């Protein structure tokens, strides 16, 4: 993964939250030293267990973290006016230039992101007017594969899948080159998951850079061009999806693939650590079947277009 | 002998189980839930009352202030359907004339306090932090002074004018609305759809106007309805102290205030008839407000499937 041809390049992203007060104060490290590149025309899937920091990553990129968060690192976004560093950007820049226009966010549980007292059409119209694009409501609904009559529907009249696609329609209103989709398939059944991921893959094929955050490894395998695996706040393995699925280097990636139905539903033993009490060194070591062979250093090491932390892949050792 | 408090549901029993509170299809309860009857009853009742308030004094061609010392505290009869008061004035004429005045005063007070309260509460809830603290302490300060005292000061400054009475009641009763609206805004503003609007670049004012107020308005209107009868009573209290409406203007408040003493002499009609008018008016307005609340929240509207 190189800096060339990327539209969004994240380097060394750290996000930590201070929780509690006084003697009970703890620091929750939600994202640690994350390197990630999003490229136009490619769908990057970010997978990992619940609570490993996936959503916090998108919140950091869009500047939507709560005030208790502290952020380090860089995230450089290609804009028409040259590169823009997102993490240090003033709120005004994020609001006027970035959100909606350069970064489209499809939120987790899109239904709650729609104002309950107004129709979907009215809200899409407001979004378009605010962003100043020439899109029409009918066009947006069509691109999100929603029937046109839903423009007159109130949010509570949408089904879960329709609400997710409505969120996608709103994210598309500003023609953003980068789309961040935070579990857009959560709670949907198989055909709808496929529908949404196919939509996102289609958008990637049209030239958007798409980040798909998901629990759903099958959806990731079907749609993703690149794969990033997150464990306990770190991106433990990144690389082209085909290569990672064919030969997972990190034992955690291998464990996740082993939990797929066609691999025999074998879960990774143990539980992920609390993000407020991460061990030094490799956080996966207590669950790792091959911990003895590893360096124990959690910093990812790059091998060609793939990167893996802690574990030295056999191909490289040989 | 054993008697069961609950009828066992046997095959011949009262039929299949059904969630509590869910009306059977086609039952009259189902229709009442739709809220349309509320609107019809409320609107019809209010129309009759307003028409009566306008027409009775006019059609009668009589002076509701006319004093007749030969007919003091007469019980209801054909000549005086609502009876007469302590100085022989016709209670029916006075009640409807008073209703007209009271309705104007109360409606103006309700509107004034709702607007001020909603503005205060919404700003307080939306801005939060120090703004919230300062604004809400101001509300506490207004509440800490007895309403009547504050009202008396305002009325004393501008004696004998209807506007002063409206201001003195409206400016002391907005605090309840402010608290209700603030609480509602505080809960709504944490919802993701507000984050979505803000992160999309909507200004605070726009968030307030397009996303929060439509959801808050029904609550605000309901508390305005509660102010309606209270304003009438409050005006009575002012009149009792001689600071209310000018004495020649009959209002429900002044009638009730005077009637209170006559009740001890057994003249119940002087209090009962104006009270019934007041209660009926309040219920009619409440019915319309409840209907409107149900209509203005899309989720409730589609539950009722009007």
From TrEMBL, chain A:
Localization in the cell: Cell membrane
Q: Name one GO molecular function term.
A: ATP binding
Q: How does it sit in the membrane?
A: Peripheral membrane protein
Q: Which SUPFAM superfamilies match?
A: P-loop containing nucleoside triphosphate hydrolases
Q: Which residues form the ABC transporter domain?
A: 10-257
Sorted alphabetically, which keywords does the UniProt record give? ATP-binding, Cell inner membrane, Cell membrane, Membrane, Nucleotide-binding, Translocase, Transport
Matching InterPro entries: AAA+_ATPase, ABC_Ni/Peptide_Import, ABC_transporter-like_ATP-bd, ABC_transporter-like_CS, Oligopep_ABC_C, P-loop_NTPase
Which superkingdom is the protein from? Bacteria
Membrane-spanning intervals of the chain:
none
Mostly located where? Answer: membrane
Q: Which family does it belong to?
A: Belongs to the ABC transporter superfamily.
Q: Which NCBIfam families match?
A: oligo_HPY
Descriptive protein name: Oligopeptide/dipeptide ABC transporter ATP-binding protein
- The species this protein was found in: Pseudonocardia spirodelae
UniProtKB/TrEMBL annotation, chain B:
Q: Write out the entry's keywords from A to Z.
A: Cell membrane, Membrane, Transmembrane, Transmembrane helix, Transport
Q: Which Pfam families match?
A: BPD_transp_1 (PF00528)
Composition bias type Low complexity, residue spans: 8-28
Q: Which domain of life is it from?
A: Bacteria
Instruction: Give the protein's recorded name.
Output: ABC transporter permease
Instruction: Say which species the protein is native to.
Output: Pseudonocardia spirodelae
Where does the UniProt annotation locate this protein? Cell membrane
Keyword Cytoplasm, does the record have it? Answer: no
User: To which protein family does this belong?
Assistant: Belongs to the binding-protein-dependent transport system permease family.
Q: Where are the transmembrane segments?
A: 39-59, 96-122, 268-292
Q: Where is this region: Disordered?
A: 1-35
**Alphabetized Gene3D superfamilies for the sequence:** MetI-like
Q: How does this protein sit in the membrane? A: Multi-pass membrane protein
Residue intervals of the ABC transmembrane type-1 domain: 99-289
């Amino acid at each position: 993964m190189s800096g060339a041809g990327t539209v969004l390049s994240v380097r060394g992203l750290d996000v930590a939250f201070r929780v509690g007060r006084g003697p009970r104060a703890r620091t929750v490290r939600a994202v640690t030293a994350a390197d990630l590149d999003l490229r136009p025309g490619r769908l990057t899937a970010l997978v990992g267990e619940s609570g490993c920091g996936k959503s916090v990553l998108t919140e950091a990129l869009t500047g939507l973290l709560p005030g208790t968060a502290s952020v380090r690192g860089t995230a450089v976004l290609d804009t028409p006016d040259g590169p823009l560093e997102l993490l240090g950007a003033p709120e005004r820049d994020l609001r006027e230039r970035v959100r909606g226009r350069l970064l489209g966010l499809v939120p987790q549980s899109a239904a709650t992101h729609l104002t309950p007292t107004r129709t979907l059409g009215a809200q899409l119209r407001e979004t378009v007017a605010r962003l100043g694009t020439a899109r029409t409501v009918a066009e947006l609904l069509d691109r999100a594969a929603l029937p046109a009559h839903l423009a007159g529907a109130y949010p509570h009249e949408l089904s879960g899948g329709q609400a997710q696609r409505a969120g996608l329609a709103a994210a598309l209103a500003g023609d953003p080159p980068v789309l961040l989709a935070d579990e857009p398939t959560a709670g949907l059944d198989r055909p709808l998951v496929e529908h949404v991921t196919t939509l996102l893959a289609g958008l990637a094929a049209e030239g958007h850079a798409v980040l798909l955050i998901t629990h759903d490894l099958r959806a990731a395998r079907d749609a993703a061009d690149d794969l990033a695996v997150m464990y306990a706040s770190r991106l433990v393995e990144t690389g082209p999806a085909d290569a990672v699925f064919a030969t997972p280097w990190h034992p955690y990636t291998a464990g996740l693939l082993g939990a797929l139905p066609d691999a025999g539903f074998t879960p990774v033993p143990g539980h992920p650590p609390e993000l407020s009490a991460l061990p030094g060194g490799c956080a996966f070591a207590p669950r790792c079947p091959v911990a003895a062979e590893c360096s124990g250093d959690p910093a990812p090491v790059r091998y060609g277009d793939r990167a893996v932390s802690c574990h030295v892949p056999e191909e490289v050792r040989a | 002998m054993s008697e069961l408090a609950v009828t066992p549901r046997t095959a011949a029993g009262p039929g299949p189980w059904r969630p509590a509170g869910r009306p059977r299809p086609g039952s009259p309860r189902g229709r009442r839930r739709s809220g349309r009857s509320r609107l019809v009853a409320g609107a019809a009742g209010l129309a009759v009352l307003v028409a009566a308030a306008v027409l009775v004094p006019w059609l009668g061609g009589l002076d509701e202030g006319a004093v007749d010392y030969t007919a003091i505290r007469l019980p209801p009869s054909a000549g005086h359907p609502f009876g007469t008061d302590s100085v022989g004035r016709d209670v029916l004429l006075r009640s409807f004339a008073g209703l007209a005045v009271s309705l104007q005063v109360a409606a103006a007070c309700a509107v004034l306090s709702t607007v001020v309260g909603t503005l205060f509460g919404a700003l307080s809830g939306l801005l939060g932090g120090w703004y919230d603290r300062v604004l809400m302490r101001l509300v506490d300060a207004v509440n800490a002074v007895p309403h009547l005292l504050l009202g008396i000061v305002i009325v004393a400054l501008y004696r004998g004018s209807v506007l002063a009475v409206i201001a003195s009641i409206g400016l002391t009763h907005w605090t309840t609305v402010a608290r209700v609206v603030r609480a509602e805004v505080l809960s709504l503003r944490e919802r993701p759809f507000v984050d979505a609007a803000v992160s999309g670049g909507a200004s605070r004012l726009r968030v307030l106007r397009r996303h929060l107020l439509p959801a808050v308005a029904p609550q605000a209107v309901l508390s305005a309805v509660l102010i309606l009868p209270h304003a009438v009573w409050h005006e009575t209290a002012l009149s009792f102290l001689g600071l209310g409406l000018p004495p020649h203007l009959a209002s429900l408040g002044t009638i009730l205030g005077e009637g209170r003493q006559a009740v001890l002499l057994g003249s119940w009609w002087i209090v009962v008839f104006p009270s019934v008018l007041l209660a009926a008016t309040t219920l009619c307005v409440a019915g319309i407000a409840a209907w409107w609340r149900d209509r203005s929240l899309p989720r409730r509207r589609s539950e009722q499937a009007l």
